Amino acid sequence: MIESKSGTPRVSVIIPTYNRGDLLCLAIDSVLKQSYRDYEVIVVDDGSTDDTANLVRPYLDRIKYIVQRNGGVAAARNNGISAARGEFLAFLDSDDLWRPEKLEMQVRFADENPQYGLIATEISSFNQRGPVPARTKSTMYAIKNGMVVEDLLFANWIQTSTVLVRRACLEHTGTFDEGVGQFGEDWLLWMRVASRFPIYFMPEALVEYRVHEENLTSHQPEAQFDSLMRILDKLRSVPQFQQKPELIQIAEYRIALGRGRGDVSVRAYDRAIPKLRRACRLKRVPVKAGALLLLAMLGNRFARAANLHRD
Questions:
Q1: Contact by Cβ (8 Å): 157, 145
Q2: Same domain, residue pair 208 and 98
Q3: Do both 211 and 265 map to the same domain?
């Protein structure tokens, strides 16, 4: 474990993992190659059933390895936070990689700009075939700095593996919410931080984000939708949204409409109908949602008729 002369590292790097032994080792290597050296590495194994424990054995003199019963990524990150000693917390998903200058640039910026509670960075994306140029945050979103909680409600440009956050901020906001399901718990925390502290986005691509089947938006779409709705319910208590409750309603409408449209596009009409009905209730004149709902209901009727005919 790499530490400062005082024995207390400035940065605690928290890596949750589940059944990604080979990728985890690559992630750890990318941390150990950092030009900034005042850090500790905490790996939280969320009950892996593969050979993760054997693969991390050569690193045990340089990392803290915690094994927990499978409880999800939010619980794993929170377990890491509880074990952390650093002034700053940095998160790295076990399938992503850091560039060597990542921590050095972020810590320097944080020291020079103490008003910012959270510092994120740009990403470069890749898959098994190579770079994926279109998947950068700045090409997908209109990014702002400062007090941006209202902007983050409609566009989350904060990739978890890019985050450096002051521990003091989480003492005010709490940690990752373990009750919202397996999607969006990071987005919820970033908005809670952003509701109290300015945040900053560094334009340098300091994280290599791995695009693969497990992190595609089509993965478990119903669980994702349920998580998003629970998150919006929790955000109603954020002061900015208490003052502007219509923003939560707009976000709910957009998510329900977008997810319903996606279901219609793959002919998942049973899934689309309740989402589109929800969208209709949220809009005074729901032209788009109403048209899609009619299409979904007709499609569902034809599909059922076709199945009865085949039977």
A1: no
A2: yes
A3: no
Structure tokens at 111: 């020291």
Answer whether residue 141 is part of any domain: yes
Based on the fold, state whether residues 104 and 199 are members of the same structural domain.
yes
- 173 phi and psi angles, rounded to 5 deg: -100, -15
pTM of the predicted model over 0.70: yes
- Per the listing, tokens 């718990």 go with 185
For 211-234, the pLDDT digits (tens) are: 876 654 446 889 999 999 999 999
pLDDT at residue 19 tops 90? yes
234-283 pLDDT, tens per residue? 999 999 999 999 999 999 999 999 999 999 999 999 999 999 999 999 99
Reduced 3-state DSSP string for the chain: CCCCCCCCCCEEEEEEECCCHHHHHHHHHHHHCCCCCCEEEEEEECCCCCCHHHHHHHHCCCCEEEECCCCCHHHHHHHHHHHCCCCEEEECCCCCEECCCHHHHHHHHHHHCCCCCEEEEEEEEEECCEECCCCCHHHHCCCCCECCHHHHHHCCCCCHHHCEEEHHHHHHHCCCCCCCCCCCHHHHHHHHHHCCCCEEEEEEEEEEEECCHHHCCCCCHHHHHHHHHHHHHHHCCCHHHHHCHHHHHHHHHHHHHHHHHHHHHCCCHHHHHHHHHHHHHHCCCCHHHHHHHHHHHHHHHHHHHHHHHHC
145 with 259, same domain?
no
Residue 190 has pLDDT above 50, yes or no: yes
Domain residue limits at 38: 11-215
User: Is residue 232 one of the residues assigned to a domain?
Assistant: no
Query: Does residue 231 lie in a domain region?
Result: no
pLDDT digits (tens, 9 = 90+) for 98-127: 999 999 999 999 999 999 999 999 999 988
The answer on 302 and 260 residing in a single domain is yes
pLDDT top residue among 194 and 126: 194
d(CA 146, CA 69): 38
